[in-house]
Design brief:
Number of domains of chain A: 2
Order of helices and strands of chain B: EHEHHEHEHHHHHEHHEHHHEHEH
Number of helices of chain B: 16
CATH architecture of the largest domain in chain A: 3-Layer(aba) Sandwich
Low-confidence stretches of chain B: none
Oligomer: heterodimer
Bound molecules: iron/sulfur cluster
Radius of gyration of chain B: 21 Å
Largest interface: A-B, 39 and 42 residues
Largest sheet of chain B: 4 strands, parallel
Structural class of chain A: alpha/beta
Distance between the termini of chain B: 57 Å
Shape of chain A: globular
CATH topology of the largest domain in chain A: Rossmann fold
Number of strands of chain B: 8
Helix content of chain B: 55-70%
Number of domains of chain B: 3
Strand content of chain B: 5-15%
CATH topology of the largest domain in chain B: Rossmann fold
CATH architecture of the largest domain in chain B: 3-Layer(aba) Sandwich
Helix content of chain A: 40-55%
Strand content of chain A: 5-15%
C-alpha cells in the first residue's frame, strides 16, 4: 500500500510520527516534494478562493499526490493540547479537500486529538485498522512513531550573527521556504541571524502568556505570542519578523496582541499569498535590515 | 454604573427590557450604522472580521452616550470570537476610554465561580430583590423569543400577503413601538398583541412565492446592517425567508449545549458533509442548507464576513451539497467595502434564477 504524505501544514512539526507509523505498518511512503511552482498552480486551481495560502498549498500537495498513491494522509488535527485548538480550517480539512478535488484515493478523516496518548491511539487504531487487522502491529508502530516524534526538533537558532531577529508565524509559514520566499536565507544574506519559537523555554512562554486577560486558545498562537514577546522584552533579539498569510484570521489577532505588548520594538510583518511579488518582498526586508542597523549604531 | 453592549440583531430589545427590570442605567448604542462601521474599521486591525469592527463602533458610540461598562459575551474557540474581548479592551484603552468590561464566557470555560462573580457584577449594581432580578432576566428572554418569532412569521407571510408590504409594515412598527416603552411587562404585552396581529395578516395561499434559506455566519445574518438589509429587500420582493440562526436560537443553543443536546436536527443533517464542529457556525451552515431543502426552500444564500474561517470551510462544501440536493446556493461575502449596487445585482440575478427554475420546473441544475 502506498501512502501519500503531503509536505504541507503541520507536516513540518509532526511528520516523524506519521511517517514512522505508516512505514512500520509496511506501507510505502510517497512524500510530495517541497512546495514549488507546479504545486502552487494546483493550489490556486483546486481550492476554494477564500482560503489562506497554507491551506491552498496543502490542496496543491494533495492534488500532486492523488494519482501516485493508494491513500492520502489528510490529518484532521483537532488539538494537540488540552482545551486548545489549532484553527477551524484544520478541523474541516478533509471536507475541504474532498469537495475541492475529485477522483481522490481514500483520505484519512479520523479526527486527531493529540492532547493525550489514549486518544491518539484511538486514531492509530482506526486508521491503522484500514491497513492491517493486527492490533499488536499497530500498537508497536504507534509506540515507535511517538518515540521518533519525541526525538525530533525543528526550528532555527543561528549563531554568529551580530544582528538577530525572531522569525514568528505558524510552523508552516516559518518552515516552508517556498511559501515564505526563502526569508531565512534572505535575512542571513543580509547578516541577520534567526531564532524561532522552538528555542524559547515553555516556562518563559507561559510567563508571558499568563499576563494576558485571557489565555489564547490556539496552541500555536500561544507559543508564538509568548516566545516573541519574551525575546523582544528581554532584548534577546533586535527585531521581529512575522510571516503571515493574507486572510489568516488567527494572525489578525496574534499580530495585534504582539503589537500591543512590545511597544515600538522593530516589527516587520511580511504578508504572503499566491500573488506576492518577490521584488517588493525583498525591498521590505532590506529596508528593515537597514533600520535595524541604524538602531544599532545610534 | 452605566452599561452598554454591542448590537446583535434584535438582542437590544431584550437587553433593554432586562436592564429596565433590573433598574440599571444603560446606553443603547445607536442602531448599527455607517458611522459605527467607519469608527470601528478605523480603529480595528485591518484583517479583523466585520463583527469585531462594528462592535467597536457600537462601544464607542455607547461610551459617548455616557456608558462606563461594556457587557459582551465570549467563547472559547476555535474561532476568533473568543479573542475579541482582549483586543477590544486594548483598543478602547489605547483610545483613552476608561471602561470596565464584563465578559460572559461559558461557565465551562472560565469556571463556575468566575462566571458567578461576573454575574454578580451586574446583580450588585441592581437595587432590586433577587426575585425581581430573576423576573427581569426572564422578561428579557421572553422579549427576545417573541420578537424573533414575530420576525420569523413576517418573513413567511410576506410571500403570501394579499396587501403587499403589510407584514413588513407590522414588523417595523412593532420594533419602533416597543423600543419606546420602558416597562418590560408592557413590552411583553405589546409583543403578544403584535404576534396576534402578524398572524392574522390576510394571505392568499394560491401564491407560489420563492422561498430562500439564509445561512452562514450568525452575526452577519442576524444583524441586518451587516448584510445590507438583505431580508428587508427580499421581503419587498415578496420572497419568503427561512433563517434558523437568531439571537433566541443562540440562547437556546448555548443552554442546550451544556448537556450536549443542542440543535440535533442540524447535527443530523450535516453529518454526511461535515460531521464535526469546526468553530463559529460552520457546521450549522451546512446542516441548515440540507434542512432548507427539506423545508421547501428553492435556494439558499450563504452570507459571511470576509476572512471568516469556519465559513470558508463550509463554502468549500456547499457546492457539493447544492449539487446533491439540486438546489442553487449563492455565497455573499461582506466587509466594510461591500458596495450596494453589485451586491443587489447578484441577489436579483439569483432570484431570477430561482424564479425561472420554479416556473420551468427544471429538473437538473448545475
Ligand atoms: S491558522 Fe491561519 S494560515 Fe493557518 S490554516 Fe488557519 S487561517 Fe490558514
Ligand atoms: S465565525 Fe467568522 S466572523 Fe465570527 S469570529 Fe469567527 S471568523 Fe470572525
Amino acid at each position: 500500500m502506498k501512502v501519500g504524505i503531503p509536505r504541507a501544514l503541520l507536516y513540518y512539526k509532526y511528520n516523524p510520527f506519521f511517517e514512522t507509523f505508516y512505514s512500520e505498518l509496511g506501507c510505502e511512503i510517497i512524500e510530495s516534494p517541497e512546495t514549488n511552482k507546479v504545486i502552487l498552480d494546483y493550489a490556486s486551481k483546486y481550492c476554494v478562493d477564500e482560503a489562506c495560502l497554507p491551506i491552498k498549498i496543502f490542496h496543491g500537495h494533495v492534488y500532486y499526490l492523488k494519482d501516485k498513491c493508494d491513500m492520502i494522509l489528510v490529518p484532521r488535527i483537532m488539538r494537540v493540547n488540552d482545551k486548545e485548538y489549532i484553527c477551524p480550517k484544520f478541523c474541516g480539512l478533509p471536507e475541504m479537500i474532498e469537495n475541492s478535488i475529485y477522483d481522490l484515493p481514500p483520505i484519512t478523516k479520523t479526527p486527531i486529538y493529540a492532547n493525550n496518548k489514549e486518544k491518539l491511539l484511538r486514531w492509530a487504531n482506526r486508521e491503522g485498522g484500514n491497513i492491517t487487522k493486527n492490533k499488536i502491529k499497530i500498537k508497536r508502530a504507534f509506540d515507535n512513531a511517538l518515540r521518533e516524534q519525541e526525538k525530533y526538533t525543528c526550528g532555527v537558532n543561528d549563531e554568529g550573527y551580530k544582528t538577530k531577529v525572531v522569525l514568528a508565524g505558524h510552523p508552516y509559514s516559518v518552515n516552508d521556504s517556498f511559501l515564505n520566499m526563502n526569508v531565512i536565507k534572505k535575512l542571513n544574506n543580509l547578516g541577520i541571524g534567526v531564532i524561532t519559537e522552538e528555542f524559547v523555554s515553555k516556562d518563559d512562554i507561559n510567563y508571558e502568556v499568563d499576563k494576558l486577560f485571557k489565555r489564547p486558545f490556539w496552541t500555536f498562537t500561544k507559543d508564538t505570542y509568548g516566545s516573541t514577546v519574551y525575546l523582544a522584552d528581554n532584548r534577546k533579539v533586535d527585531g521581529i519578523v512575522y510571516v503571515s498569510s493574507f486572510g489568516c484570521g488567527i494572525d489578525s489577532v496574534l499580530i495585534e496582541l504582539i503589537k500591543n505588548n512590545v511597544g515600538d520594538f522593530p516589527f516587520l510583518i511580511l504578508k504572503v499569498d499566491e500573488h506576492t511579488g518577490e521584488v517588493g518582498f525583498n525591498t521590505r526586508i532590506e529596508a528593515f535590515s537597514d533600520m535595524l542597523l541604524r538602531r544599532k549604531l545610534s | 454604573m452605566k452599561v452598554t453592549f454591542p448590537h446583535f440583531g434584535n438582542t437590544f430589545f431584550a437587553a433593554k427590557a432586562a436592564f429596565d427590570g433590573l433598574g440599571i442605567d444603560y446606553a443603547v448604542p445607536p442602531l448599527c450604522n455607517k458611522e459605527a462601521l467607519e469608527i470601528g474599521s478605523y480603529y480595528s486591525p485591518e484583517e479583523m472580521c466585520l463583527p469585531f469592527k462594528i462592535m467597536i463602533g457600537n462601544y464607542i458610540q455607547g461610551i459617548k452616550e455616557g456608558a462606563d461598562t461594556v457587557l459582551t459575551t465570549g467563547s472559547c474557540g476555535p474561532c476568533r470570537f473568543g479573542e475579541y474581548c482582549e483586543l477590544q479592551m486594548d483598543i478602547l484603552k489605547k483610545l483613552g476610554y476608561d471602561v470596565d468590561f464584563i465578559v460572559f464566557d461559558a461557565p465551562k470555560a472560565i469556571g463556575k465561580e468566575e462566571f458567578l462573580r461576573r454575574v454578580s457584577l451586574i446583580s450588585n449594581a441592581s437595587s432590586k430583590s433577587n426575585n425581581e432580578q430573576i423576573e427581569a432576566a426572564l422578561n428579557g428572554l421572553k422579549v427576545i423569543n417573541l420578537i424573533d418569532d414575530i420576525e420569523k412569521i413576517a418573513h413567511i407571510k410576506c410571500g403570501y400577503e394579499i396587501n403587499k408590504g403589510e407584514s413588513k409594515k407590522i414588523l417595523n412598527s412593532c420594533k419602533r413601538e416597543i423600543y419606546s416603552i420602558n416597562n418590560p411587562e408592557e413590552v411583553v404585552k405589546r409583543l403578544h398583541e403584535y404576534k396576534r396581529k402578524i398572524k392574522s395578516v390576510p394571505i392568499d395561499l394560491n401564491k407560489k412565492p420563492i422561498t430562500v434559506g439564509i445561512v452562514g455566519e450568525i452575526y452577519t445574518i442576524a444583524e441586518p446592517f451587516s448584510n445590507l438589509y438583505i431580508e428587508d429587500k427580499l421581503m419587498d420582493y415578496g420572497v419568503c425567508i427561512k433563517r434558523k440562526l437568531s439571537p433566541s436560537w443562540w440562547v437556546k443553543n448555548t443552554i442546550m449545549s451544556a448537556i450536549n443536546m443542542q440543535s440535533l436536527d442540524i447535527r443530523l443533517a450535516s453529518r454526511k458533509y461535515l460531521p464535526l464542529y469546526i468553530g463559529g457556525h460552520g457546521r450549522e451552515c451546512v446542516g441548515e442548507t440540507v434542512l432548507s431543502k427539506r423545508e421547501g426552500c428553492d435556494g439558499v444564500i450563504q452570507i459571511f464576513p470576509l476572512g471568516c474561517m469556519p465559513e470558508i470551510v463550509s463554502k468549500s462544501i456547499l457546492p457539493t451539497v447544492s449539487k446533491d440536493l439540486n438546489m442553487p446556493v449563492m455565497t455573499l461575502i461582506v466587509d466594510e467595502m461591500t458596495g450596494e449596487t453589485g451586491y443587489m445585482t447578484r441577489i436579483e440575478a439569483f432570484l431570477d434564477l430561482l424564479e425561472r427554475r420554479k416556473s420551468n420546473n427544471v429538473l437538473s441544475w448545475s
